[in-house]
Amino acid sequence: MFLTKQHLTTARTLGVALIAGVSLSACATYKDDFARIDSRLDQLDVKVQGAAQSAESANQSATQANQRLDQIEGRVQQLEQAPRRKPRG
């Protein structure tokens, strides 16, 4: 059977439709992939923000502890330099 112009046109149209269908289905797959990636990035962003807040809180606690140590350091040095008392008895 010989191919006529009508058969070639039909085959070409079918080929274009097939390629378009495959392309569109691939785009849908990529959209799903990007949606999953975006969701995962959002989850990671929340975790990073939580870790940053925890680190800031720990930094503030450490600063307060250092200030308290600085306040009592003078008193400790006075006690260390004071003459020793003789025990009674």
TrEMBL record:
Keywords, A to Z, come to:
Signal
Give the residue range of the signal peptide. Answer: 1-28
Q: Does the keyword Chaperone apply?
A: no
Has the keyword Methyltransferase been applied to this entry? no
The biased composition feature labelled Low complexity covers 49-67
What SUPFAM superfamilies is this protein classified in? Answer: Outer membrane lipoprotein
Q: Where is this region: Disordered?
A: 49-89
Protein name stated in the entry: Membrane protein
Species, as recorded: Stenotrophomonas chelatiphaga
